[in-house]
Structures are given as structure tokens and as C-alpha cells.
UniProtKB/TrEMBL annotation, chains A, B:
Family indicated by similarity: Belongs to the class-II aminoacyl-tRNA synthetase family. ProS type 1 subfamily.
Gene symbol of the encoding locus: proS
Lineage of the organism: Bacteria, Pseudomonadati, Pseudomonadota, Gammaproteobacteria, Chromatiales
Organism: Rheinheimera salexigens
Record-level GO BP terms: prolyl-tRNA aminoacylation
Major location category of this protein: cytoplasm
Catalytic activity of the protein: tRNA(Pro) + L-proline + ATP = L-prolyl-tRNA(Pro) + AMP + diphosphate
Compartment(s) where it occurs, according to its Swiss-Prot or TrEMBL record: Cytoplasm
Superkingdom, natural source: Bacteria
Protein name as annotated: Proline--tRNA ligase
Length: 580, 580
């Protein structure tokens, strides 16, 4: 591609409204332009990267036995009503009416459509397992779209759905998808980790997220330094402390703690470590049947954590006694129950269930709120001062915690979620009565898996992980062009033009995607653009080097420069790209 | 691909709700399934064909210098308001509000979005010409979607938009697109014709449609049998008869024609040919300014055609005197003006403008309505009996008319429109003020072209053109699989299984897409499915032929069968597919 026949659209200034580096660089490198909030046009450089990511995903899915289909973006309400999600989903599901006043939605995902398809097309166990995927445009009407294509409203996704008659069969496809995802992210040239994940609102039992590691990632991931264990911090188990709990050595005593509310304040006032304080959070209890609960009294539950630990809301929500999604008690509810404010509440002598985190349950002689404004209790001990309580894992892990796998300690890194695999189970197949005749001739509901890759999101994640002060540093596999040719003052030198054109033809014929910068621009402008758009290999063609039949090669990632003989260029570059 | 690992989904019965053969066959061959009116899921066989068509279109567009972009499907109202189409377009433009109550539409086309992009990104004549294309999902809320993907609401389209500073430059890109479209349809293996077309509501000056020829096509196309001339029948010029008009030989006389209304009835009663009758149609006249026209009297215009000719409404609409879109006079309006019904009106002694088709203007001693119910006039002659009239081309051509190119006579064939190229001019660039600095440093509005290919529609058109009683007959280039392997009783014969597997591996390694029918089905079922889905080349592996190291080859299109030596298969098939 010659730049004179291309739409480069690079921008020097950092756009004011782009908060993260990938968004800034995608705008500056001429990859995307905003059409409306969360909606983008991909410019030529953006499309080139997008199509490469798409093709790698398609090839690896196909290799893993998945079959490509294509479902519509616009979906009829009936299917969403059948699954129950028409009413359950919030405004993220963009609903509208067609000209005949029928209800439709823009598809944010396709569980309903695929389950409907499969229940019609698949009638016998002989047709199973089946794993269908598509690469298709989705729409989620995010309340606050931002970060460019990282959280867009309209985006390109690969979604796959598998159908089975047994958990073993589902597990086999799940494992194959796990491996396919590893292959995809390896081929993309990204540093990634699969991590155990929460199955969340979509339901199901087993789930892994695939994260591209980047300091700017919005998710925290816990890694063992002694094994392959990795889990989303929401999921990572904080294991119970080992050894005996110390015996009580103090008497419980009430101390005045006027005007202090936070753990840190109390710790400072009483001259103890944060970890010696037990903080108590009150949340709403689950009710047997919310609809029938006509009493206006809200039942509360006390959650007790060490002062230096944070509540893990996902773990708390999973407790049977706790209302899900989590609701914290209001100041008024606390006052009605305990006659004290949030800064002075504690688990001693209260009439509601108490759930204690493993670490907090290991404390002796600790400090809690006295349920009396401006007072705390010191020297508190479990079993002696609080006799009725339950112990559970309800905190976020912290760096240095023992790994739940039993090997090593946990580290925390940041990641960007680019893939997610789920064992869905029968959530959708039950709702849509999707079953087949099994080997015994009986009708049996299928069990399902689903597997997503954020195709457009991968681009942003790749940039978050691969950039420097000058711009993007593409892995070879998804670079918009692999090689840039930068001729020096070509418009004044026939010799330079001829040498560059010859090299262009040679490299193109060898199958490389070459960007020939034939603009009448100063060398500095050309260098800056090539670095900004992140072409991995560039070749500068100048008069002096041509005298020796040489050109200057520069590697975008290492920054290394070297002189190469023109005759060797093709074979050297072929070698370097194969080594990746 | 082994059929046991595929979703074949063929259907024996012809679906009741599918009216045309391509829709029936796409359903029966397991290519598509209906999700809602005009919305389809592409099953694996459908996706394979769709992706091939898409890739051929992409490659030829790229070769022709167009650059790929990708615009969003959801478009903000503001751009459509700026072009004026937000209010102008009917319900085909599906409008809706997002969660923040902002107006959006599903994109049926992208003139607004691309023009907005280019006015921001392109500032100098140096960046022109520019031709940007995308292959993207469109939505048109058709009032009556039908014929499967032939007229769907959601469909895949390639649309391209070019930008220029001069008509010469536009013409050059237009010509390149014309050639690219010829290349596309040739590579697809389709019998097609580019035809001159009306520019219609989208505006602009020059336009060609690309039609796949098929007896079932909904458009009529006029071809010269003596040249390359082809035009949509809406556009084909009916040239004026040559030679002198015969001199009058009869006196004008009133004859009673009771209870006859149609041309054929009158001709029979008076014992003359249909072509000797001049029929008169009355339409509304264009008014200088409709908004200011407060008079309730509608002005009429008389259009006179030979009795054996049909009015071409598009030609009539283009006349300055005629209201566009065309409105025919009501029975009451005729009676108010002429005191006669539609079956008895004529151009003699009337007070409204008369526009006569060239052929009708060449008549002498002809018959017209007498403007008196139940009476006609015979022996009517131009200039003598009707003195004030204008001559124009306002009829549809008929087979046998002289070609307007001057060579040969016209034939009429049916076609399916699959591509359309337009010289848009400044319609959108003016509305959106899309200009650049020209060579003189002055701001100049760009001129535009636009170029569409109905990617998913091509599939239906290809089937309309290529099928027989047994199913689809794919051209090699877009067949879902190129070769089918049909083993006889494989599940009872290890030898057959081994031979078929070896052949499968060999053909796959040679780069062919092979469908290995490894189902436990009767041969008849397998043959029927392979013919239905239209795989061009099939190979039957049977015990007896294996004794001679042979297999049976069958060509889907010709139906010819022959025995081939297994050792030669790869080279023979390579040769046959290259010859295409």
C-alpha cells in the first residue's frame, strides 16, 4: 500500500476526551473515529487490524471443531420473553418497535436465538455435541460507554454456544475451547492469562476469563507465585489461617472513641494495628420469598472482617442467608436495630446472625464497635464474648496470601478481559425446552456452554499492553502492515524512488504487507507516523547507504537499527517473522 | 469436513411459505432459517457461501484501489437530519431512541456517515480521489419482506463511496468500479449484465445496475442483439420511428362504441389493429410551487400512446410539465374536464397540454376516444385534427424495437439486481458541506460516487440462475464445498472407510474444501443431499471400483459420470477447477 493511495489520518495531538492510552493511540494512529457515544467507524488502519484478529479467531475456532453460523443483530422479543430476560435485563438491552409495532431488541448476546435454532434443527443425540460460533456485531446500550472500543456500545464479538447431553461431554468441549483460546491469544502475540472467574448473572457452574495483562487493566487477578493458579480477585479463595487461634488474654472493656469512625482512626487512637480491629458491616438478609414478605421490618446480617481486609461482595452474595444482589443496611436501619451509627457498630450482643471471615475469626483480644455512638470494645474474644456466629470466606485476597492451590503465595496483577468461557448448564435450554431424544429414546434437555471473545476489544487490550511514548508496538500477527518503507527525499531522487519501488515490489511479491510511505513529507514526519501506527519492521532507504547496496532496518519494539544488504532483505525478514 | 461433525440440516419437503425457488432451496439445503420476518440465521452451509462471496468482493474492491473501512450499524439522527433524509425517508428507516432518549436509526445505507467522516478527515485536494468501502450488515424495515434473503430486512452489503473534485475524476473511479463489478461477477461464475439504470430518488446523473440473468428476475432488461447495449427497461430509450409519417387519407368521424373500454375491445369492434389506436392517459401537471398552490383545480396533462404500447412512468415523471411522482387523474377529474369516462377520452379539442409518444405521433388515420361516453373518433390525424401537442419518449420499449445504440434490435430478458453504481454528484456533499481546499487554495465541495453490491442477495440470485429439479448447482468459486466424497456402506467396510479417508486427506492437503459424508445413511439419501446443497464435484467410493483402483466422479452441472483412477484424482480436479 502506498500512503498516497491510503487514508492515513494520523493526528499529532492527544485527543482531550480519550482517557486511556489505547483510546488515545487508536484515535491518533487513525484507526477509529467516533460517530456517536460508544460507536465508532474503523478507518483503514483499524479495519486491517480488526480483520486479522477476526481471522485468527475464526481459524482457531474452526480447528477446534466449532462451526460458523451467522445470526441476526436484530432479535424478536418473543425469544427473550421465553427465556425471561426481556423483563429481567436493564436498559442495556436496547428495545424498539418495527414499522408494524412489533417488539425487537438489538442483540447484546445470542443465547436465545441459538437455543431456538438448535431446538428446531437438532432432534437426536446423534447430532451432539455441537459447537456453533459466529463473528458478529453486537450492541449493548451501556449507561456510560467509554475508553473507545474497550467499552463501546456497538462492537464485534465472537460468540460460540455448545450443546451436549452430559456434563462430561460439555467438559470436553469446554476444555477444547480453553485450549483454542490459549492458541488464539498466543497467535495474537499477547501476554495473557486464563483465570478462574465468577459465573455471575448468566448462571452456570464453571467459568474462566482470559485476561490480557496490562498495568492499566480494570480487573485485578490473583496469581500464585508457586503454580499455574490464577483467578479473578472476585473468585480467588482466601484460605483460612492455619494453626490455633491465640487464647484470650484480655478482659472485654468499653473505651471512649469520640469522633473517630474509620478503622484507621480507631487503630491510631487505641495504638493497635488495623488487623487487630474487627469491622462489622450490616447487609440485608435473604427472605424466604420476597413477594410474600409483607412485613416492613428488614432482616439484617452482620458481616465481620479484619480491619485490614475488604469485603468481597460476590462471595458475600453467594451465602444463602444474604440477599443477592447485596444491599447494605441504611444508617436508619442500623439505628433502629442497634441505636448506633455505622462507625460504632459491632457483633457483641446483637440479635441478628453474625458471619465472620476466616481471618477475623482467627483474632483474639480484638477491638469492635460497642453499638453505642463514640465507644468501642477492646479485648473482645470469640466464643467468650460472641457465642453465636458462623465462619466463611467473605474477603478479597491480598498480595501475600497463601494460594488456595496449596502452593506459593498470591500476587495481584491487572488484566483486561478479552475472552470468557462458561459452562452454562441448562439455564437457557430449560427455559426454551431445548431437548433431543437420547440413546434410550427419551426426551432430554441439553446442557450448554458458551464462549465469547471480544474481537474489537482485543485491539484496545493489545495496545494497552504494547505501546511506548512514540505509539503502538504491534505484534507481527495483527500489525496493520508488517513492513514500512521510508524513502529519504524520494521526490528529489530518481535513484531512491527506483530502489524503494523495487524493494516494495519484491517484498509484496514475497507476501509481506508493506506500507510504502511515498508522501512528500519530511523524514521526521514519516518516522513519527510509522512509529505511531506501530509497524513492527521499518526500512529506511537513503542515498549514502544505497552506495553500499544497503538500507537501514529498524525494529519497532527493540528500537535496534542495523544496516542490511538489499539482496538479503527478504530472507532476513522472513526469518525474523517466523521466529515469532 | 465430515458430515458427522457438521450441521447439515437439509429438508426434504418444500417449505410452504417460500415463494421462489432460491428461498425454497436455501431452506431445504440448510443454508438459512427464519428468525423473524425478513431476518435469517445463516446455518453453516449458508455462512460458507456468504464468506466466499464476501471475500471475492473484498479482493476485487481492493484491487481496484478502494480502501476498506467499517461504519456502525446504528447511526445518530443528527447526520440524517443534516442531509434532510430523517424526515424524507419512510418507515423503511427504522428509527428508535437509546436509553438516554436520543434518536438513532438502523443504517439502511451510509452516505451520511461516510460524508461526515470524509469532511473531517480530508482537507486537501492532495488526498483525493478517495474510494472507501465496507462490507457490513444493513437494516431496511421493508413493508413486506419476502423471498428469503432476496428481500430481507437485515442483510449484508458491500457499499463504497468515492470523493472527487471533478467530474472527470469521478468518471475515472466510476469506470474502475464498473470494471471491478464485472470482475466480481465473473469470478463468482454468474451470467450477468451491466445495464443503464435510472438514478431514482438517490439523485445524481449516471448509473448502472448489475443484473444476474434469471427467468425469475423481477426486473426487465432490454438488450441489443447487435451490440453491448443493455438498459433497465425503465431507462431504455424508445427511439422515434424513422421515415415520413403517412399522409391523412380519411376524414375524422364519430363512431358509436357502446360498452367497450379497453384498446383491445375497440380494435375488435372497429376491426383495426391495436397499434392503430391512440390511447390517452391523463396525469396531474407539475405546479410551480405546490405549497403556494391554493387553488383546488388540479391541472391535467394528456399523455398519448399507441394502443399496443405501455406508458413508462419513469420517463413520464422526468418531463418538466408532469408532476413527480406520477399521479393519474381520477375518474371525477376526467369527468370534470371532459365530461367522459376513462374509456372514451382522447386528445381532440381539449384544453390541456398534450404530450405524444414518438410512435403514436407517427400514426395517421388513427382512432381516439371522442370525449363522449360510448363514442370514438376514427380517421384522426395529427396537425389537422390536433394542432397543439409535443412529442416525447414516454413508452416502455418492446421486443423488436430498434436499439437506441443504433445497432440491432432490442430483446427483453429478466434479471435480478445485485449491484448498482451511481454518480451521486453533490447531493450529500452539499448538504453536509463536505469540501476541501482545491489546488487554487479555495474551498470546494466534493463530488461523489456510490457503489453497492448486495452480498447476501447474490447468493439467492446465483441459485435462481443455477439450479435444477434436484437442487442448487453452485459455481466452483462460491460452492460451500468443492468436492463431496460419498462412500458406499462405509460403516460395514473397513476398506471403503480407509480408501475414503485417504482420499479425504489427500484432497484436503491439496487445498480443496471437501465434504466427507460419513453418515450411516442409505446411498440414496446421501446422493440427494449432495445434489440438493449443490456441491459441484462428487466422488463415489464403492467396493467394485476400488478393485480397479477407481472411483466414480460425477459432475453436478453436466450430470456426467466417469470412472477415474484414484492416483489421478487430485491433478484431474485441479485441472477442471482451473479451467473455470
Amino acid at each position: 500500500m502506498r500512503s498516497s493511495q491510503y487514508l492515513l489520518s494520523t493526528v499529532k495531538e492527544t485527543p482531550a476526551d480519550a482517557e486511556i492510552i489505547s483510546h488515545q493511540l487508536m484515535l491518533r494512529a487513525g484507526m477509529i473515529r467516533r460517530v456517536a457515544s460508544g460507536m465508532y467507524t474503523y478507518l483503514p488502519t483499524g479495519v486491517r487490524v480488526l480483520r486479522k484478529v477476526e481471522q485468527i479467531v475464526r481459524e482457531e475456532m474452526t480447528k477446534a471443531g466449532a462451526i460458523e453460523v451467522l445470526m441476526p443483530m436484530v432479535q424478536p422479543a418473543e425469544l427473550w420473553q421465553e427465556s425471561g430476560r426481556w423483563d429481567k435485563m436493564d436498559a442495556e438491552l436496547l428495545r424498539f418497535k418495527d414499522r408494524h409495532n412489533r417488539d425487537f431488541a438489538l442483540g447484546p448476546t445470542h443465547e436465545e436465538v441459538i437455543t431456538d435454532l438448535v431446538r428446531r434443527e437438532v432432534t437426536s443425540y446423534k447430532q451432539l455435541p455441537l459447537n456453533l460460533f459466529q463473528i458478529q456485531t453486537k450492541f449493548r446500550d451501556e449507561r456510560r460507554p467509554r475508553f473507545g472500543v474497550m467499552r463501546a456500545r456497538e462492537f464485534l464479538m465472537k460468540d460460540a454456544y455448545s450443546f451436549h447431553l452430559s456434563q462430561e461431554c460439555l467438559q470436553k468441549t469446554y476444555d477444547a475451547m480453553y485450549q483454542a483460546y490459549c492458541n488464539i491469544f498466543n497467535r495474537l502475540g499477547l501476554n495473557f492469562r486464563p483465570v478462574l472467574a465468577d459465573t455471575g448473572a448468566i448462571g452456570g457452574s464453571m467459568s474462566h476469563e482470559f485476561h490480557v495483562l496490562a498495568a492499566s487493566g480494570e480487573d485485578a487477578i490473583a496469581f500464585s507465585d508457586g503454580s499455574d493458579y490464577a483467578a479473578n480477585i472476585e473468585m480467588a479463595e482466601a484460605i483460612a489461617p492455619t494453626g490455633e487461634r491465640p487464647a484470650p488474654s484480655q478482659q472485654m472493656a468499653e473505651v471512649a472513641t469520640p469522633n473517630v469512625g474509620t478503622v484507621a482512626d480507631v487503630a491510631q487512637l487505641l495504638n493497635v494495628d488495623n488487623s487487630q480491629i474487627a469491622k462489622t458491616l450490616f447487609v440485608h438478609a435473604a427472605t424466604a420469598d420476597d413477594a410474600k414478605n409483607t412485613s416492613k421490618t428488614v432482616q439484617l446480617i452482620a458481616l465481620v472482617l479484619r480491619g485490614d481486609h475488604e469485603l468481597n461482595e460476590i462471595k458475600a452474595e453467594k451465602l444463602a442467608q444474604v440477599k443477592s444482589p447485596l444491599e447494605f443496611a441504611s444508617e436508619q436501619e442500623l439505628r433502629d436495630l442497634l441505636n448506633a451509627g455505622a462507625g460504632s457498630v459491632g457483633p457483641v450482643n446483637i440479635q441478628v446472625p453474625v458471619i465472620v471471615d476466616h481471618s477475623a475469626a482467627h483474632l483474639a483480644d480484638f477491638v469492635v464497635g460497642a453499638n453505642k455512638d463514640g465507644y468501642h470494645l477492646t479485648g473482645v474474644n470469640w466464643d467468650r464474648d460472641i457465642t453465636k456466629y458462623q465462619v466463611a470466606d467473605i474477603r478479597n485476597i491480598v498480595a501475600g496470601d497463601a494460594s488456595p492451590c496449596g502452593k506459593g503465595k498470591l500476587e495481584i496483577k491487572r488484566g483486561i478481559e478479552v475472552g470468557h468461557i462458561f459452562q452454562l448448564g441448562e439455564t437457557y435450554s430449560q427455559a426454551l425446552k431445548a431437548g433431543v431424544l437420547n440413546e434410550a429414546g427419551k426426551h432430554q434437555i441439553m446442557t450448554m456452554g458458551c464462549y465469547g471473545v471480544g474481537v474489537s476489544r482485543i485491539i484496545a487490550a493489545a495496545i494497552e499492553q504494547n505501546h511506548d511514548d512514540y505509539g503502538i508496538i504491534w505484534p507481527d500477527a495483527i500489525a496493520p502492515f508488517q513492513i514500512a518503507l521510508i524513502p529519504m527525499n524520494m521526490h528529489k531522487s530518481v535513484r531512491i524512488e527506483e530502489a524503494t519501488t523495487a524493494l516494495y515490489n519484491q517484498l509484496t511479491a514475497a507476501g509481506f504487507e508493506v506500507f510504502f510511505d511515498d508522501r512528500k513529507e519530511r523524514p521526521g514526519v514519516m518516522f513519527a507516523d510509522i512509529e505511531l501506527i506501530g509497524i513492527p519492521h521499518s526500512i529506511v532507504i537513503g542515498e549514502r547507504n544505497l552506495d553500499n547496496q544497503e538500507v537501514e532496518y529498524k525494529n519497532r519494539r527493540s528500537g535496534e537499527k542495523e544496516l542490511l544488504n538489499i539482496a538479503d532483505i527478504v530472507s532476513i525478514l522472513q526469518q525474523r517473522m517466523q521466529q515469532k
